[in-house]
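Deliverable D5.2: sample structural annotation.
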Amino acid sequence: MSHHPPVLALNCVGKGWELQKNLHNSIKFTGRNVTCEDHNPTIVDLQLLNGRSENYSLKTPKLIVGNLIMGERYIEPIGKVTCHNTTLGIKCILDFKARPGMFSKEDTTNAIKGFIYDADDNKRFKIFGKFSSKIEAINLETDE
């Protein structure tokens, strides 16, 4: 463990799961906002009911704490998230969209877009929506 820069390791174990994390963040203060970026993935091991296990590696997005001086404070994830099932080779890549600018016509607040890929890197599902309300997935083969 270290305070400058902040470094932390953790290991959590429960019935049927284990989570491992080595937190190594970079933190940047811009005057009005703080941006925090984690450079290491989170590792999750799941023991399934059928006796098999699956391992996941999760890379998290940047987090922005905004309006520190004036206005309503908010926490917003921005950027790509990659969740990789290292056992099966499948992955999900989501893009957390930034809040719209002052003159933007598109409302991207809390919006995510992304895809789930099979082991051969083919897109299988499209994911979209707002993480604060509703997220939908469409099977690209059946359009359902």
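Annotation notes: The chain has a mean pLDDT of 91. The domain at 2-139 is CATH 2.40.160.120 (Porin).
The annotation will be released with the project's public dataset once the embargo ends.
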